[in-house]
Design goal:
By secondary structure, this protein is an all-alpha fold. The chain has helices at 8-27, 47-57, 60-117, 123-137, 153-170, 174-184, 187-196, 199-205, 223-239, 243-247, 252-269, 275-280, 290-319, 324-350, 358-381, 385-391. The protein is built from 16 helices and no strands.
Length: 406
């Protein structure tokens, strides 16, 4: 790999993982269960969307953090620790500090509009109103977890993982590197041992309801380190063993079959969320048993790893060649992910009381969200200081040669 070469497939995989998040946030509010739990939820929902949400949620962030760890290792080797710190400060810390307040203000305004102007109130908006009223009179509400980071929580934890990167690079222990290398290059290690490393993280995450939550509280939680941190570290070591990605394609059909079986098992294992119990704030009644939590954690751990490995192999196979279209999506994906949620929630709220098919609503939300997000990227971001901050400077010439965006 030469200094000017580019791993197009890893750029593409990261972009598609982020676009999967956009799809998820545009559609999950129309799930029969999730419509109660997220902003913009209306009176109608489809079980199919719940199943799709579980599927996308089972691997997309794990894949994203693996690619992040992969690029972190690349960046340290290419630019050194000071270069890594400068890059992460510009690409992660600064966008988080700038865009989080803007995103949260817009989301609060949209949710406030939903509470005051829309007749139908979901469980989410009812709880939001209750939390606000409790804060006004100084009463603690069981669901009030303090300041939130919404969908930008991944930037928050990437900052912590950046600190871990410094430790990895500064105090690398050869024995540990050898052990991880052997696991990655061993069939049993790769497909049985490594997926099991994330089981504790899953167990801690699903302890309340059986579902994997978004760690969007600004109070750091331990389980994202035990789950997403494992994938970040896996990406770090995978950069040093890139040939393993080719090995992931060996026996891909049995891995795909195993993933399908695990996914169906997960759908059967997840507990039914009792909306009435949630409305009372009774979290204890929702907590799955110890044995059920173990089963769900094991199923999710192996499902996620098998799906991530399939994505890595197919990504390398299909996205290794330079593509103008894919490069544009890769460049735009960061901005699109930052701005999409307020647009999607606004559209969802505006359509709650419109008497049209739920399928038309989903199509409208997805189309408007993607159109406005990409249009704003082209007009306001791509060749402006915002774009330089998110992706580095881009030449307008078609023949440009660009370094890793990491």
């Amino acid at each position: 790999m030469t200094p000017s070469s580019r791993l197009h497939y890893m750029d593409g995989i990261r972009a598609l993982a982020m676009m999967a998040g956009v799809l998820l946030h545009c559609l999950y509010t129309y799930g029969e269960t999730y419509r109660h739990l997220v902003p913009g939820g209306g009176p109608d929902g489809l079980h199919f969307i719940d199943s799709l949400t579980v599927f996308l949620h089972s691997f997309r962030m794990q894949l994203f953090f693996l690619v992040s760890g992969f690029f972190a290792c690349l960046l340290v080797q290419k630019r050194g620790l000071m270069g890594f710190l400068k890059n992460r400060s510009l690409r992660i810390l600064l966008p988080f500090m700038i865009f989080l307040p803007i995103v949260m203000i817009v989301l609060v305004l949209i949710i406030s509009y939903h509470i005051t102007e829309v007749e139908y109130q979901s469980l989410f908006t009812q709880l939001a109103a209750q939390i606000y009223e409790a804060q006004q009179v100084g009463i603690e509400h069981p669901y009030d977890l303090g300041p939130r980071s919404a969908h930008l929580w991944f930037l928050y934890y990437l900052l912590f993982f950046g600190i871990c990167t410094l430790v990895l690079a500064k105090f690398s222990i050869p024995a540990i590197n050898q052990i991880i290398g052997k696991l990655l290059n061993s069939t049993i290690g790769l497909w049985l041992v490594i997926p099991a490393l994330s089981i504790p993280g899953y167990f801690l995450a699903i302890g309340y309801t059986g579902y994997l939550p978004a760690p969007d509280s600004l109070t750091p939680q331990f389980w994202p380190f035990a789950l997403y941190g494992v994938y970040y570290l896996l990406g770090w070591f995978l950069f040093q063993n890139m040939h393993v990605i080719d090995k992931m394609g060996i026996g891909i059909w049995w891995k795909t079959t195993a993933a399908v079986v695990l996914y169906l098992l997960l759908l059967q294992s997840l507990p039914t969320i009792n909306i009435e119990e949630l409305n009372t704030g009774n979290l204890i009644s929702l907590k799955p048993s110890f044995s059920d939590s173990i089963i769900i954690a094991v199923v999710e751990a192996y499902l996620a790893f098998y799906l991530v490995s399939i994505c890595l192999y197919l990504g390398k196979k299909c996205l290794s060649q330079a593509s103008t279209q894919m490069r544009y999506i890769s460049d735009a994906s960061y901005w699109v992910y930052i701005v999409h949620l307020p647009i999607a929630v606004f559209m969802q709220v505006m359509l709650i009381e419109v008497q049209i098919s739920i399928w038309i609503k989903m199509a409208a939300v997805l189309l408007v969200t993607l159109s406005l997000s990409f249009l704003s990227y082209q007009l306001l971001v791509r060749h402006t200081p915002i774009g330089w901050m998110l992706n580095g400077r881009k030449k307008k010439a078609k023949s440009e040669t660009v370094q890793y965006s990491s």
